[in-house]
Amino acid sequence: MAEKGYCMKCKATKEIADAKEVTMKNGRKAMKGKCTDCSTGMYKILGKK
Questions:
Q1: What does the pLDDT profile of the chain (49 residues) look like in tens digits?
Q2: Does residue 20 contact residue 48 with C-beta atoms inside 8 Å?
Q3: d(Cα 39, Cα 23) in Å, to the nearest integer?
Q4: What is the CA radius of gyration of the chain?
Q5: Which of 2, 4, 38, 45 is the 20 to 30 A CA-CA neighbour of 22?
Q6: H or E element: which one contains 39?
Q7: Rounded Cα distance, 42 and 34, in Å
Q8: Residue 36 and residue 14: Cα distance in Å, rounded?
């Protein structure tokens, strides 16, 4: 299943291409990738796991 996030440029929920799980400075997890349509950077903060 592909991760979904909100693209600020398209103003719609899209799939995140090249999604990678990263850890932010505060220790929280996030998914980072690009929009499939406009290639804008997308970032989705995940819950505490």
A1: 678 989 999 999 999 999 999 999 999 999 999 999 999 999 999 987 6
A2: no
A3: 22
A4: 11
A5: 38
A6: none
A7: 5
A8: 7
